[in-house]
């Protein structure tokens, strides 16, 4: 039997970054960037379907808090997305603070010499990888 996997998600209404990690190795790797549909339920359905294909045991969704810890409009949308994903997938969904994950993704791309025009989708899946790895490193 295959080991359950974690799916990490950097949720946005335009783009959704996705990463994956096996429960055994606990090393997150970028997987894909999907186009958001600007519809929480449709986006959650797409992620639930992806979770089924990837044999996900659970999902980790980055929670975009403001630097002072307060919620923003995107935080509210992300919480709705996470609740809908849990309902549709029947799998646990963990929220994990994603502050500075996009900044870290930019740093990775700077070090790799990725051109500005090539960064858009790549940044989202690297951010998802950073969110998922931070969750795993926290012992969750």
Structure notes:
There is one protein chain. With 140 residues, the protein is α/β, with parallel strands linked by helices. It has a single domain, classed as YqgF/RNase H-like domain (Nucleotidyltransferase, domain 5, 2-Layer Sandwich). Strand 4, helix 2 and strand 5 form a beta-alpha-beta unit. Helix 1 crosses helix 2 and helix 3 crosses helix 4.
Structural class: alpha/beta
CATH class: Alpha Beta
- How would you describe the shape? globular
Number of helices: 4
Number of strands: 5
Overall residue-averaged pLDDT value: 87
Whole-angstrom Rg:
14 Å
Task: Write down the secondary-structure element order.
Answer: EEEHEHEHH
Task: Name the helicity range.
Answer: 40-55%
CATH evolutionary superfamily = YqgF/RNase H-like domain
The CATH architecture classification is: 2-Layer Sandwich
Please state roughly what percent of the residues sit in beta strands, choosing from under 5%, 5-15%, 15-25%, 25-35%, 35-45% or over 45%: 15-25%
- N-C termini distance: 23 Å
Number of domains: 1
Strand order of the largest sheet: 3-2-1-4-5
CATH topology: Nucleotidyltransferase, domain 5
Low-confidence stretches: none
The largest sheet, given as strand count, sense and whether it forms a barrel, is:
5 strands, mixed
